[in-house]
Amino acid sequence: MFWTLPTLLTWARIVAIPLIVGVFYLPWPMAKINLLACVLFVVVALTDWADGWLARRLNQTSAFGAFLDPVADKFLVCASLLILLQLERVTALVALIIIGREIAISALREWMAQIGASRSVAVHMLGKLKTASQMAAIMLLLYDGDIAGVIHTRQWGTWLIYVACGLTIWSMAYYLQKSLPDIRAKAR
Is the pTM of this model over 0.85? Predict the structure, then answer.
């Protein structure tokens, strides 16, 4: 189902990514840009939850939607990390680990699907925790300010992005370990 409401929300998430990037080219004070980018990111990230919930609720799940949803997530995370890298709010190593894992696991999933072993790389709770921590860290780092004079979002975001980086490595190791028997079986 190409044009269902859940799929349209996923498409909207992809289309909104240039808006988040474009905000940083506005001739506004950086605090206003950070706030707008953070709000846009949160709204766009919430569509990830909404499209899945609607697909199940309206019985509109589809193979295309299952394909497009993680692609939209990866675009959103990668684009945001590149912005944060340019703004020197994340290190190149953090961005490389997270983006590299996304590419590697996407390639692994595609290969496992080709050999009929998709079940060994099915989404696991560890991957969901990784995504949640990445999204929260990116939101805090995009905001890059103080909340109520108490929460310094860059500091909290930096700590959380390192947690996300650890979960990124752990989840990659998990998926590789789960797929290893199928890889060995096909290598023979």
Answer: yes
